[in-house]
Write a structure and sequence with these properties.
alpha/beta, Rossmann fold, GMP Synthetase, Chain A, domain 3, 9 helices, binds guanosine-5'-diphosphate, binds potassium ion, binds magnesium ion
């Protein structure tokens, strides 16, 4: 006789927190593949992004979310916050991410949004940046008063061993349930979507601080012929001056955005990519409900 195979487990795990605490970095590490873009700027993540990992009998469905916006109430920010609220409804587990040793009003506002009854793991990320580790234990104790957290997990999303331990911890919270995705799936997002996101990531990483809030990317064309993908995308900004910032002197910056995006897509997909980039001005798009929707935000 032999033992029956372990019953399948499958569940949803939302990753939430204020901007820039490392949610998307953590998602990519948990999935083992870049499904969500990251940068040191707020508003990098603007969508609910699912990252899937299937291991043994368990399928983890992680949900990355935009950082909850507490400042400007324009149409884009309202859409981003709606996305966060939608993503935390009906999950089996929440990873509430903060920077280790820190908790401010913006963190508190996110915590207050979490639905009661769902287990929440306090992920104290960027532990590698904490110089005095002895301060972390009293800080964690002080966090016990903030919420009935199910677990306290100090870690670094950039440390693979920490990520593996967090994965094992998450597994304990997932119910017995048949898998919802093919075990080879890594995300529910398309290649077309990822292409637009990577253009936005390079744009955020290669430009000054103002641009993130006023720019977006639309993929106009995505065609595949064998191993070759042909992509055309438009970077949309709110002002003529921003257009100049994106293009750069003699077109150098736009060229670099294109090259870095293409190289990364070719690495991820293992095939050749032709990428054409355009820049357009659409003044006031981020406070225009119809445009915000048309550009793909909920
Ligand atoms: P999000 O806005 O919460 O999704 O944050 P991101 O994943 O985009 O990360 C924000 C910044 O923090 C990026 O520059 C990351 O490289 C950095 N980061 C994320 N996790 C860690 C970590 O564990 N340690 C350090 N030192 N940096 C991190
Ligand atoms: K970020
Ligand atoms: Mg993010």
């Amino acid at each position: 006789t032999h033992a029956a195979p372990a019953p399948q487990r499958c569940g949803f795990i939302a990753i939430v927190g204020k901007p820039n605490v490392g949610k998307s970095t953590l998602l990519n590490a948990l999935v083992g593949y870049k499904v969500s873009i990251t940068s040191r700027k707020a508003q990098t993540t603007r969508h609910r992004i699912t990252g899937i990992r299937t291991e043994g009998a368990t399928q983890f469905v992680f949900v990355d979310t935009p950082g909850f916006q507490t400042r400007h109430g324009n149409a884009l920010n309202r859409a981003l916050n709606k996305t966060v609220l939608g993503a935390v409804a009906d999950v089996d587990l929440v990873l509430f991410v903060v920077e280790a040793g820190r908790f401010d009003l913006a963190d508190a506002k996110v915590l207050a949004l979490l639905p009661p009854g769902v287990p929440v793991i306090l992920v104290a990320n960027k532990l590698d940046r904490v110089h005095r580790r002895v301060d972390i234990a009293p800080w964690l104790r002080s966090m016990q008063d903030r919420h009935p957290f199910a677990e306290f997990f100090p870690m670094s999303a950039k440390q693979p061993r920490d990520v593996q331990r967090l994965l094992a911890l998450c597994e304990r919270y997932l119910p017995q349930h048949p898998w919802l995705y093919d075990p080879d799936d890594l995300t529910d997002r398309s290649e077309r979507f990822l292409a637009g996101e990577l253009v936005r990531e390079k744009l955020f990483r290669l430009t000054g601080d103002e641009l993130p809030y006023t720019s977006t990317v639309v993929v106009d064309r995505f065609e595949q012929e064998g191993e070759l993908r042909r992509i055309a995308a438009t970077i949309i900004v709110e002002r003529e001056a921003h257009k100049g910032m994106v293009i750069g002197e003699r077109g150098e910056r736009l060229k670099r955005i294109g090259t870095e995006t293409r190289q990364e897509l070719e690495r991820l997909w293992g095939g050749k990519v032709f990428l054409e980039l355009w820049v357009k001005v659409r003044s006031g798009w981020s406070d225009d409900e119809a445009r915000v929707r048309a550009y793909g935000y909920e």
